[in-house]
């Protein structure tokens, strides 16, 4: 009885582990498309940067927010693809800049949030 049970268990495990119902997918030959430039308002960028600054210092307070001109964007309609913000920590007596970028342009910082020195 034990041998029969063990044989059935082994067969079930082999069936589950070795079989797949999906055929093999062919390798993709297409190049991935570059991401589109993301133009955002200063408020959107500020909210993202403020979250990062609060991770640096609990009492971080903003004192500057400015857009940066790139070849992709000249800052039209209050939107830009690169925003810079500076935050101060009164308790830590220090200042730290942060940059939000929505482009992969050569003259812009890397896409996402980058803390400064």
Would you identify the regions where 5 or more consecutive residues have pLDDT less than 50? Answer: none
Number of helices: 2
**Helix content class:** 25-40%
Strand order of the largest sheet: 2-4-5-6
**Secondary-structure content class:** alpha+beta
Form type = elongated
In total, how many beta strands? Answer: 6
In short, what is this structure?
The protein has 117 residues and is an alpha+beta fold. 27% of the residues lie in helices and 26% in strands.
Question: How would you describe this protein?
Answer:
The protein contains two helices and six strands; from the N terminus they run H-E-H-E-E-E-E-E. With 117 residues, the protein is of the alpha+beta class. The radius of gyration is 26 Å and the shape is elongated.
Topology:
Elements lengths: L1 H17 L21 E2 H15 L4 E7 L11 E2 L1 E8 L4 E8 L10 E4 L2
Antiparallel strand pairs: 1-3, 2-4, 4-5, 5-6
List keywords for this structure.
alpha+beta, 6 strands, 2 helices, elongated, single chain, 117 residues
